[in-house]
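call fold(seq) -> tokens
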Amino acid sequence: MKESSRQLQKQRTRDMLLHTAYLYFSEHGIRNPRMSDIAQAAGVSHGTVFLHFKTQEELIAEVVGTCCGKIARRTHELAGECGSLEEMLKAHLDGIREYEAFYTRLVVESRMLPQSARDAWISVQSAVSLHLSPFLEKAVAEAGLSGTPASMLFHVWMGLIHYYLANSDLFAPDGKVVERYGDAWISTFLQLLRQRPEKLS
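ret:
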């Protein structure tokens, strides 16, 4: 019984450290903070952090993996309720909105992260692509854009979002980029898809 209680407390401490690191990374960046910063923010000793995570890279990978898993699961949940491309685009933005500060850090810092963290980041993009692609393929067919790969339209959509998030200090200093521009992104993207091919050439 004592061992079970000890293990439960250990798991609670680990979860608390992950949440603290998530909040700290969201505000200060993922690569810059030191393990001592996380310890101070969590109100524990430096050694406590190292007891649960041997290296800074291990902590980063765990936080990114946990958050990306939540984003992927939330995207999957929201996608199940979508019947149109517009609804799917809104669902995608809603999924990002819940984790916007941390997601923005991933957009900016992803290429500097440990490989395991980058793999988690890529998995989120794959999850979004999985749900968005069928809607894009249907939109391409309906618009008569047979020469336009749905995958390219997916990259256009993601590029639009990521450009704004990467420059959030210019577009929304309060940090709420999705709230401020989400509707405009969707309407503009849908308008491009509805253009007749001859008007796009």
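The CA atoms of residues 1 and 7 lie 10 Å apart.
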